[in-house]
Specification:
- The complex is a heterodimer of chains A (about 400) and B (about 230).
- Chain A has about 400 residues and is an alpha+beta fold.
- Helices cover about 55% and strands about 15% of the residues of chain A.
- Chain A has helices at about 5-20, 20-60, 100-110, 145-150, 170-180, 210-215, 220-225, 245-255, 265, 270-305, 310-315, 320-360, 370-395, 400; strands at about 65, 115-130, 130-140, 155-160, 165-170, 185-190, 195-205, 215-220, 235-240, 260-265.
- Chain B has a single domain, classed as 3-Layer(aba) Sandwich (Rossmann fold), CATH 3.40.50.
- The model of chain B has no long low-confidence stretch (mean pLDDT about 90).
- Chain B has seven helices and ten strands.
- Chain B is about 35% helix and about 25% strand.
- Classes of the chains: A alpha+beta (about 400), B alpha/beta (about 230).
- The interface between A and B is medium-sized, with 31 and 30 residues.
Chain lengths: ~400, ~230
């Protein structure tokens, strides 16, 4: 007996049994459909939401920042046999340069994990326009390199991304506070008499209030002069290829360069924690919905096995092997899972379209092309597994007893 | 052992719940042989062990002692898979309550033993099944659901199903027990006809003395022992 020839009858019996009990089949199919739709929709929703949150967060900041090591007090070891009691005041962290930053930059450029590197000279200053004053953050950048880390040019609302001698790009809130528009003059005061007047060439809006209120982008050289750090940079911003490995990469870079590193995962610990909790919650919902679907399939098939006791007995008496009976019920479980998840997947897809069209439009959800096929494969497998217990029971019936079952 | 012998039981015993206080021996050393083309009635009062014996002969149950030879082949040591295969190849069953599969139509019910054997039925399988349906007077019923038929019609379908594999042995358990007299006669007539046509050994368990009288050989079982084995009683 060939395998294909044998499975032909299993299919025929499984389909007939399902169609024969169409009400029972329809009810469990509705259950599986709803379960699958919930799983697919919630997965698409949460994936879309998280992608959106991460894009927004990481769109305006470096993935890993490389900083000079903190200055610490060096305490002399006490002489042998004595105990020293220290009262230590932590050192003030003055603005310092990264030593040999050109070498570090070249090293990072060669790192395969890192896709963009941008050295910055940044420090605090005051911005003045007429009588208005506002505290600002000066960021001296190499515009081409910085644009690869934070695409400021994409967020311009006025003017152009013109960074050069005597030109600066400022945030929308700062422009409002100081009453500035494009081509107006902004006076920068970095303290100790270091001042400069620049033309506002562009105004950006990154959508993060703190940045839109404080950031002033300048040419690297001009910032170095204002901050009294000739030829130096205070931080190197980088972007990595896979964002969730940022923490590991940062740790490795710290060991490699001897400098201090901060990954976005560290500085956005709360966000990451929220995202992880959300993922965990979604996972729990998926598992429990999946389990209840599996138990639904198992219980319907368990009832069906009892209802069909006599038919199973007849089939066995006519020479139907145990394996064949087993496969008939496994197939029914698999078919229920496949059909229910197919319809459920389609339903979830429609829900996503409805959400994108009629929802609050805060963000767009995409359905990963692999999501629905994966859900169907998992549901089919779940159906087969759920059918295992009733199917084994059916296969073990004693035909002589089963045939007399009424 | 002659060439024409289909079935031989030698010293078959059946004990239920051995080694417990509920232990009961239902069959005591049954010796019985059935030859090709023989039509035998198995009679006996309720509780005499007829059903147990029929289950053992039909390879649905195993004897506690003794041996059962089917077409000269010992069967006691066979495992479930081999017994199942042998049931499909060599034995046809007809039960009291017809026992068709209601989810399938009449033709599929008749074809079922062949489909179990080799999957999708071939053209000549279908032809054979239709031929048998015609012989039991049910041509044109192929597409009907089993549940749409009367009791007598269902029993005729069951006979066609039992014979579709051309079994060496046809076993019938009270095949007319649930039918009115006239229908019962028609059914019994079919057994006689197919017994002659296909030359299979037929063993009919019955309560009906007139049916038993119609059989050339009658075996009577009382308290798990064969008390009479001979020509028809009547």
């Amino acid at each position: 007996m060939s395998v294909a020839g044998a499975l032909w009858l299993e299919w025929k019996i499984a389909l007939r049994f399902l169609l024969d009990n169409y009400l029972q089949t329809l009810l469990i199919l509705v259950g599986i459909t709803v379960g699958a739709a919930v799983i697919v929709f919630i997965t698409a929703l949460i994936t879309g939401l998280q992608r959106n949150v991460i894009e927004r967060t990481l769109g305006t900041q470096a993935h890993i920042r490389i900083l000079p090591p903190d200055e610490v007090n060096r305490v002399l070891p006490p002489p042998p046999g004595s105990v020293a009691l220290d009262l230590e005041s932590p050192r003030a962290q003055r603005l310092r340069s990264i030593s040999n930053w050109q070498d570090v930059r070249d090293l990072l450029d060669a790192e395969p994990d890192i896709v963009a590197v941008s050295p910055l000279a940044s420090g605090p200053a005051l911005g003045r326009s007429g009588v208005a004053r506002s505290s600002i953050a000066l960021l001296g950048i190499d515009p081409v390199r910085y644009q690869r880390v934070v695409p400021v040019a994409d967020h311009l609302i006025a003017g152009r991304f013109g960074i050069g001698a005597g030109h600066a790009v400022i945030g929308r809130k700062l422009a409002e506070d100081l009453g500035l528009s494009v081509d107006d003059k902004l006076r920068l005061d970095a303290g100790e008499g270091r001042e400069a007047v620049v033309d506002v060439s562009g105004i950006f809006e990154l959508g993060v209030l703190e940045l839109d209120m404080r950031y002033v982008y300048l040419d690297l050289k001009q910032a170095q002069t204002l901050l009294d750090l000739p030829g130096a940079v205070t931080v190197i911003d980088t972007k990595v290829g896979s964002i969730f490995r940022a923490e590991d990469i940062a740790r490795r870079l710290a060991r490699l360069t001897g400098l201090k590193t901060e990954s976005w995962m560290e500085t956005n610990g709360q966000l990451l924690n929220a995202l992880r909790s959300q993922t965990l919650t979604t996972q729990m919902i998926r598992i429990f919905v999946g389990l209840s679907v599996a138990f639904g399939i198992a219980s319907v098939l368990a009832v069906s096995v009892v209802q069909r006791t006599r038919e199973i007995g007849i089939l066995r008496a006519m020479g139907c092997p145990r394996g064949q009976i087993l496969r008939v019920f496994l197939l029914q479980g698999g078919l229920l899972g496949l059909l229910g998840s197919g319809v459920g997947g389609a339903l979830a897809w429609l829900l996503v379209q409805a959400f994108n069209r009629y929802g609050a439009r805060l963000f767009e959800i995409g359905v990963d092309p692999a999501l629905i096929p994966t859900a169907m494969a998992v549901a089919t497998l779940t159906g087969v597994l759920a059918a295992a217990v009733p199917a084994r029971r059916a296969a073990r019936y004693d035909p002589a007893v089963a045939i007399r079952y009424v | 052992m002659s060439e024409s012998e289909v079935l031989r039981l030698s010293g078959v015993c059946k004990v239920y719940n051995p080694g417990t206080p509920q232990e009961s021996e239902v069959l005591h050393g049954i010796d019985l042989a059935l030859a090709r083309g023989e039509l035998t009635a198995l009679i006996g009062p309720s509780g005499s062990g007829k059903s147990t014996l029929l289950n053992i002969i039909g390879l649905l149950d195993t004897p506690s002692a003794g041996e059962l030879y089917l077409q000269g082949r010992p069967t006691r040591e066979l495992d479930d898979a081999e017994r199942t295969r042998l049931r499909n190849r060599a034995i046809g069953f007809v039960f009291q309550f017809h026992h068709l599969i209601p989810a399938f139509n009449v033709l599929d019910n008749v074809l079922m033993p062949l489909m179990i054997r080799h999957g999708k039925p071939a053209a000549d399988d279908i032809e054979r099944a239709r031929g048998l349906l015609a012989e039991v007077g049910l041509e044109g019923f192929s597409a009907k659901r089993a549940t749409e038929l009367s009791g007598g019609q269902q029993q005729r379908v069951a006979i066609a199903r039992a014979l579709v594999t051309r079994p060496a042995l046809l076993l019938a358990d009270e095949p007319t027990g649930n039918l009115d007299t006239r229908t019962a006669e028609t059914i019994f007539e079919l057994f006689r006809r197919f017994n002659v046509r296909f030359g299979c050994a037929v063993l009919v368990v019955t309560h009906d003395p007139r049916l038993a009288a119609g059989c050339p050989r009658t075996v009577e079982l009382v308290d798990g022992r064969i008390v009479r084995d001979g020509a028809g009683i009547g």
